[in-house]
Amino acid sequence: MSNLLAICLLLLIGWFWLDSLRAREIALAICQAACRQRDLQFLDQAVALRRLGFAWRSEGLRLRRVYRFDFSEEGVGRRNGYIVMRGLSLEELSFGLPEQTGDA
Known about the structure:
alpha+beta, 4-stranded antiparallel sheet
């Protein structure tokens, strides 16, 4: 019985690790595309996990991950943004910049 419990625990850890890698890759791709779209420099080509928790929504219980990333507006200075992933889906993306309108 204890061997079965150990195997189940190892499988759960393996699933969590692979799911975390997949969520990080998706978050990285979203951040890169969003920076390109807004003509920002995506610095360090990385996102860093800041918070991990659970979110209960209509589709059930999902892992909620908050990643931080750095970007630059014109190659000068360094600003922080964040992306929130619920499971493997984007929940929120923020650059902390004023929203651009199409009227300019």
